[in-house]
Amino acid sequence: MTFKYANLLLIIGFGSLSVVSSLLLSSGMLFLLTEVLVIALLAQMWNLLAGYGGMVSLGQQAFVGLGGYGLYVFANHSGLPVWLWIVVVPLMVGVAALPLGMLMFKLKSAYFSVGMWVAAEILAAIVMRTDALGQSGGLVLRPGGESLAGNPERILFAGAGLLLIGTIVGLRVLLNSDLGLALLAMRDGEEAAEAAGVNVRRTNLLIFCIAAAGCAAGGALYYFSTLYIAPTDAFQINWLISMMFVSVIGGVGTLTGPLLGTAVLIAVRETCTSLGLTGGTYWIIMGTIAIATLLILPRGLWPALRSKLHVPKTEKEATIG
Amino acid sequence: MLKTVGISKSFSGVPAADDVSLSLQAGERVGVIGPNGAGKSTLLGLLLGTVLPDRGQILLDGDDVTRLSPHQRVSGGIARAAQIPMTFHRLSVSDNVRVPAVHGAGLRGREAVEWVDEVLEMCGLAASAKVAAGQLGLLSRKRLELAKAIATRPKVLLLDEVAAGLTEPEIETIIHMVETLSEGRAIMWVEHIPFALRSVCERLIVMDKGRKILDGPFAHVWDDPVLQEIYMGVPDDNLS
Q1: Structural domain harbouring A138
Q2: Which alpha helices (H) appear in chain B, and where do they start and end?
Q3: Do A181 and B95 touch (CB under 8 A)?
Q4: Does any domain span residue A289?
């Protein structure tokens, strides 16, 4: 019962916080915060896939790009409202991920990781050569052929906030379900889970599709706020690096870790920008922080902080040892 | 109930199972012995589905299960306790048992909770239900491995050297557990410890070089000169 109340409290608290702040903050701030929420969402998905599911994908940026492009193509060429597509496109990407997953699961561990990366690169290359997708020039968001009236950033920010908190609550429920139990068992040993009656392949595929849909939702939200999409941006590996950085720094295999990691990522990035440090210097700083954190706290910030603060582990929450 | 027809499996040309045909009746308790490399573990792997045969057929209650994956066979009523306990080390003992109760036996809600408690009680693990499996000692992990197998509610229980590596009093507790757990099930027990098999099994199968050499009532097979020959130079009383 307390578990359900905690979830309800999370939704109401963070939901109203995001709605209220969407009314108070400036447009530029909202754009930045929407990106923050999207990165946190993507990180939760990578964390689900790699941290809980043990599928270390290096190609999740493919689903971010697909979500963005899916939104542009369907919104631009149909008379239906763009808000509908922001819900439908992630579901479509989730379904489309099924055959890709079936193919990729023929590859084991490191081969799977690299295979996913190659798949993402192939997809980006196809988009860059497709006329209908604007080739390397990209697309402008014109729902139904019209320019978008007004700026959607308030609703987008509130929507991203609600989606993120919905995702976290959804993941909490998932990890406490029978499916979550199977997932946690598989993380400790796939062969043992299979011998205990768990359909390992089906569980992996399901998680793969959920993570794909989640990344697509992040992509759709983000590129809605930019009003312009290009393949070099939508399919860039920086999406993946952000997801991994945030998860690993914060604590893989925990739900709180990626949120903490996102805060670190954005704080460092914005500080660098305000100091005029860009490009190479910025990445050197990020890399140094990542290596230093992992040398000092191999399991990430949150597990270390949690034991310092004596916060009890939630039952199904666990870290990669 | 469980039947194999001429199953064979080679690993890079070396036969690990060579034309093995056997059948197991409901409630029957069968011991399997043979020198290292005789193909005992491979046989259990073939029955569970972690190893697929090159030739031959495996039937469960008359249905062909030769190509089914392990989780499908578990649902069909075959379970295995592994030689090296394959416990979920980051999950609690009770969650370890819950995985097969839910996903193997297909239980839900209250039914699952009650069955997990019952299995933990049966296997002497009730006191450590909340402990992470990774923190257990060897005997407890062996108990947990048995508990996980039993939690799937199997008709056929495959035991792969579940008593290996234990001291004699510990082996006694495992024997006692197997006796309790075998109520109403067929058991196939691979073990190198003859006194353990002798106290539980009424039938004995002898394997050598992937082939089934002997198969019959325990005492009968035990006294067979062929068995002495396989374990050449080892006198009978050293084995028992």
Answers
A1: 2-236
A2: 40-48, 70-76, 93-99, 109-122, 138-151, 168-181, 194-200, 218-222, 225-230, 236-239
A3: yes
A4: no
| A20 occurs within a structural domain | yes
User: What distance in Å separates residue A182's CA from the closest CA in chain B?
Assistant: 6
Domain count, chain A: 1
* A17: helix, strand or coil: helix
Q: Which of B86, B98, B105 sits opposite A195 (nearest CB)?
A: B86
Question: Sheet holding B156-160: strands in order across?
Answer: B78-81, B156-160, B186-190, B29-33, B203-208, B211-217
pLDDT digits (tens, 9 = 90+) for A155-184: 888 889 889 999 999 999 999 899 999 999
Q: How many CB atoms lie within 10 A of CB B108?
A: 11
- CB contacts of B95 in chain A (<8 Å) are 181, 184
| B234 confidence band (pLDDT: 50, 70, 90) | low
- Judging contacts by C-beta atoms under 8 Å, the chain A residues touching residue B48 are 195
pLDDT reading at B10 higher than 60? yes
Tokens of B60: 């469960």
For residue B75, give the chain A residue with the closest CA. A197
Residue A98 is assigned to a structural domain of this protein: yes
**Domain annotation covers residue A300:** no
pLDDT tens digits for B62-85? 899 999 999 999 999 999 999 889
Q: Which domains does chain B have, with CATH numbers?
A: 1-66+187-232 (3.40.50.300)
Rounded Cα distance, A56 and A50, in Å: 5
Residue of chain B nearest A183, judged by CA positions: B99
Q: Which residues of A touch B106 (CB under 8 A)?
A: 197
Helices and strands in chain A, H and E counts: 14, 2
- Cβ neighbours of A74 (radius 10 Å): 19
Task: Write the DSSP assignment of A59-112 as a string of letters.
Answer: -THHHHHHHHHHHHHHHHHSSS-HHHHHHHHHHHHHHHHHHHHHHHTTS-HHHH
The stretch B225-238 carries a mean pLDDT of 68
